[in-house]
C-alpha cells in the first residue's frame, strides 16, 4: 500500500482510504475499530462470501433485476478473487462487530471497486456498481453469513475426510501387521488381560471410522441454505425466484451438494447445525487425542518405560540430553486436539447466545469451526505420514511384559475360583515370580492343563481359558 489516500463517505461521514485499496470506507472503519488479533480472515470464509456475491449477480442477471453489463463485471471481479487475486484486500479481524457486517461489506467493496475498474471507472467512486445497491442486492449480512459458514465448512469437508480416511487406513494396516503380537493389556494403567497389539490398532482405526461417520452425518444438516431470508428470514426485498436460482448457481459455482432451506427464519435464528458439526469434530478430536496419548505411553522409554513400540524419529528431543528422541508428532496431535476442544466450546457458547431473529456471534463461530477443520486436517495428515506409517513393534518387549502381568491369574479363575486366583496374583507380585511359574511350582493345575489354560493367544479371543473342564462349582 502507498501512503496516498482517497476520500470516501458512508452514513457516518468522510474517511480516508488508501488510494490503491480495493476495499473502502466501511472496511477501514472496521480495521480501525477492531485491532484485536492481528489475524486475517480464514480464506474459506472469504471465498464463500465471494461465491454468494457471484451467484447473486448471476441470479439478478437472469431475472433482469440488474443490468447484464454490471452483473458481468461483478462476476468477473468475483472470478478474479476466486482465482486467488487480491487476497490482501480482505482485512477485517475475525473478532469484529456482530453478525459479520464488516466482513460482508469488505467483500462488497472489493468486488464493487474491481467491477468499476473493469467498466472503466475508478476505485472509491462506486459508480456504476455500488457495494450495497448492486453487489449486495437482495441480500443481508444476516442471510449471507449463515450461508457462508455452511458453504465454507462443506468446502473443506472433503479434505478433512480424506485426511482421516488416510489415517484410519494406516492404523488398520498396522492392525494387520501387528496381529500376531500378544502384549499385556492395561486398564486403570494397571495389569490387565492380554490383548494383541494388532487388536489395539484395529480398534483405533474403528474409532476414527465412527468419528468420521458422525462428522459426515452432522455435515448433512449444513446443506440446507437460508439464503433469501434477507434481514430477518422473511425474505423482504427478495424476489420469489431468488432462493431457487441462488441454490442453482451456488451448486454450479461450488460443486457442493446443497439444498434450499425449508424454513429460512429457523436457519437464521439458529446456529445449531454448525454447533452440531463442531461438536462432531470435537468427538473426533477426543478419539484422536486418546490414540496419540496411547502411542506416547506404549513408546515410553526406551530403557525405563514400556517400550512396546518405536515411533519414527523426526527430530532431536532435547537441547541438553544427547540422543534423546521424543514422541514429537503425537505431542503435536494432542495439542491440536486440545485446541479443537476449546474451539468447540467457543462455538457452543456463541451458538447459544443468539437472540430472537439472529445470532450475532457468527464471526467467531465461523473462525473457530473453520480453524478446527484446518488444524484437524493437517494434524491427521502429518500423524499418518510422519508417525503411524512408520511405527515398529518391539515384539520382545511385548512378550516380556505380558508374561509378567499379574492379571494372568484371571485365566485360572474358572478353574480355582476368584478368591484363590486373587491370592495367587498377589503372591506372584510379592515374590516376583511369574504366574505361570507359580502355577507349576505349587501344582495349582495338572501339568497337562497349564499351557492350555495359560495360552496367551487364546486369552485374546472370546472363550473360557482351558475350556470347560475343571470349572469351580458355583464359581
CATH architecture of the largest domain: Up-down Bundle
**Structural class label:** mainly alpha
Major β-sheet annotation: 2 strands, antiparallel
Mass-distribution shape: elongated
Strand segment count: 8
Tell me which oligomeric state these chains represent.
single chain
**What is the spatial order of strands in the main beta sheet?**
1-2
Query: Total domains, how many?
Result: 3
Low-confidence segments, ≥5 residues, pLDDT <50?
A: none
Proportion of strand residues: 5-15%
CATH class value of the largest domain: Mainly Alpha
Q: Would you tell me the overall average pLDDT?
A: 95
Give an overview in words.
By secondary structure, the chain is mostly helical. Helix content is 56%, strand content 7%. The chain has 3 domains: 5-137, Fumarase/aspartase (N-terminal domain) (Fumarase C, Chain B, domain 1); 143-396, Fumarase C, Chain A, domain 2 (Up-down Bundle); 404-460, Ribonucleotide Reductase Protein R1, domain 1 (Orthogonal Bundle). The chain contains 17 helices and 8 strands. Helix 6 packs antiparallel against helix 7 (197-220). The longest helix has 37 residues, at 141-177.
Brief overview:
This protein has helices at residues 25-33, 43-63, 68-82, 101-118, 131-135, 141-177, 197-220, 242-254, 264-269, 272-298, 328-352, 362-386, 395-403, 413-416, 418-431, 435-441, 447-453, and strands spanning 5-10, 13-18, 182-187, 190-196, 224-225, 259-260, 309-310, 392-393.
Amino acid at each position: 500500500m502507498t501512503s496516498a489516500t482517497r476520500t470516501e463517505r458512508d452514513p457516518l461521514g468522510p474517511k480516508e482510504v488508501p488510494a490503491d485499496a480495493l476495499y473502502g470506507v466501511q472496511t477501514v472503519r472496521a480495521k480501525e475499530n477492531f485491532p484485536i488479533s492481528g489475524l486475517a480472515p480464514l480464506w474459506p470464509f472469504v471465498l464463500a462470501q465471494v461465491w454468494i456475491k457471484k451467484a447473486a449477480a448471476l441470479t439478478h442477471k437472469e431475472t433482469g433485476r440488474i443490468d447484464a453489463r454490471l452483473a458481468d463485471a461483478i462476476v468477473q471481479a468475483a472470478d478474479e478473487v476466486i482465482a486467488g487475486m487480491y487476497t490482501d484486500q480482505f482485512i477485517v479481524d475475525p473478532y469484529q462487530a456482530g453478525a459479520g457486517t464488516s466482513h460482508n461489506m469488505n467483500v462488497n467493496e472489493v468486488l464493487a471497486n474491481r467491477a468499476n475498474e473493469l467498466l472503466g471507472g475508478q476505485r472509491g467512486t462506486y459508480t456504476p456498481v455500488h457495494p450495497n445497491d448492486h453487489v449486495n442486492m437482495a441480500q443481508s449480512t444476516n442471510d449471507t453469513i449463515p450461508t457462508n459458514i455452511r458453504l465454507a465448512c462443506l468446502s473443506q469437508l472433503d479434505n478433512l475426510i480424506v485426511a482421516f480416511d488416510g489415517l484410519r487406513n494406516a492404523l488398520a494396516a498396522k492392525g494387520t501387521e501387528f496381529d500376531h503380537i500378544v502384549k499385556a493389556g492395561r486398564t486403570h494403567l494397571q495389569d490387565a488381560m492380554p490383548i494383541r497389539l494388532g487388536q489395539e490398532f484395529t480398534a483405533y482405526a474403528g474409532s476414527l471410522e465412527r468419528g468420521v461417520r458422525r462428522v459426515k452425518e452432522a455435515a448433512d444438516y449444513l446443506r440446507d441454505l437460508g439464503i433469501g431470508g434477507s434481514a430477518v428470514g422473511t425474505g423482504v426485498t427478495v424476489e420469489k425466484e431468488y432462493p431457487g436460482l441462488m441454490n442453482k448457481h451456488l451448486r454450479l459455482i461450488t460443486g457442493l451438494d446443497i439444498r434450499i432451506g425449508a424454513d429460512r427464519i429457523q436457519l437464521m435464528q439458529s446456529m445449531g447445525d454448525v454447533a452440531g458439526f463442531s461438536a462432531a469434530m470435537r468427538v473426533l478430536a477426543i478419539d484422536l487425542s486418546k490414540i496419540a496419548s496411547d502411542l506416547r505411553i506404549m513408546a515410553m522409554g526406551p530403557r525405563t518405560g514400556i517400550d512396546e513400540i518405536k515411533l519414527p524419529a523426526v527430530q532431536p528431543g532435547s537441547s541438553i540430553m544427547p540422543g534423546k528422541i521424543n514422541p514429537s508428532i503425537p505431542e503435536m496431535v494432542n495439542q491440536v486436539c486440545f485446541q479443537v476442544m476449546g474451539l468447540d466450546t467457543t462455538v457452543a457458547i456463541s451458538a447459544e447466545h443468539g437472540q430472537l431473529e439472529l445470532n450475532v456471534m457468527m464471526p467467531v463461530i465461523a473462525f473457530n469451526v473453520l480453524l478446527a477443520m484446518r488444524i484437524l486436517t493437517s494434524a491427521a495428515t502429518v500423524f499418518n505420514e510422519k508417525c503411524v506409517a512408520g511405527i515398529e513393534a518391539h515384539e520382545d518387549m511385548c512378550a516380556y511384559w505380558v508374561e509378567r502381568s499379574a492379571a494372568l491369574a484371571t485365566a485360572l479363575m474358572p478353574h480355582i475360583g476368584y478368591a484363590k486366583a486373587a491370592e495367587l496374583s498377589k503372591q506372584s507380585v510379592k515374590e516376583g515370580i511369574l504366574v505361570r511359574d507359580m502355577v507349576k511350582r505349587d501344582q495349582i493345575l495338572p501339568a497337562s492343563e497349564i499351557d492350555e489354560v495359560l495360552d496367551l493367544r487364546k486369552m485374546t479371543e472370546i472363550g473360557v481359558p482351558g475350556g470347560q473342564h475343571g470349572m469351580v462349582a458355583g464359581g
